[in-house]
Design a protein that fits this description.
single chain; mainly alpha; 8 helices
Amino acid sequence: MHTDLNELIQNIGYIGIFAIVFAESGLFFGFFLPGDSLLFTAGFLASQGILSLPILLVGCFLAAVLGDSVGYVFGHKVGRKFFQKEESFFFHPKNLIKTEEFYKKHGAKTIILARFIPVIRTFAPIVAGIGSMNYATFIKYNIVGGVLWGVGVTSAGYLLGKTIPGADKYLTLIIIGIIFVSILPGIIHVLQDKEMRADIVSSLKKILSMGKKK
């Protein structure tokens, strides 16, 4: 796994790395991109002299903050229109109401915590924009989240490479661990939320019924 990621990072270079961080931070189609593992591995490669740590830290931070900002603007300007149809399966009006209530209660810290949760990381700024979260508040926590995630995870990869001899031998296990820790909060949340579990079961039943019809 890590060999493929190493090769990918070296092939796409700084521009590719920053583009992926930007896309995963706020473009709705970027949720499948390897954010955490990409940053960590890029930091590790910097420890081996393959990449420049200062360029990575500045570039990843800016890409993360700008990506979230673009996601917010998209959600604020366009996202609300998706909730106009009552029968919409994915963009039901009740979800907008829940979003606004959720951000009123947890908005600020959610922008930071979402950075470390795949998929949610991508949609959090869009949902914040849809829910009309105050932009001054959003950008403040966006910057803090950009530092903790973009700079923090990259620096962790760099420090590992510098402090542990032969760390590249364990990089695959470390990346798997990072991915697991990243998705764990989402799994716990789903298990604790009865309504969300019911929605997932209902969605699966619809998908299965569609398959049987075919």
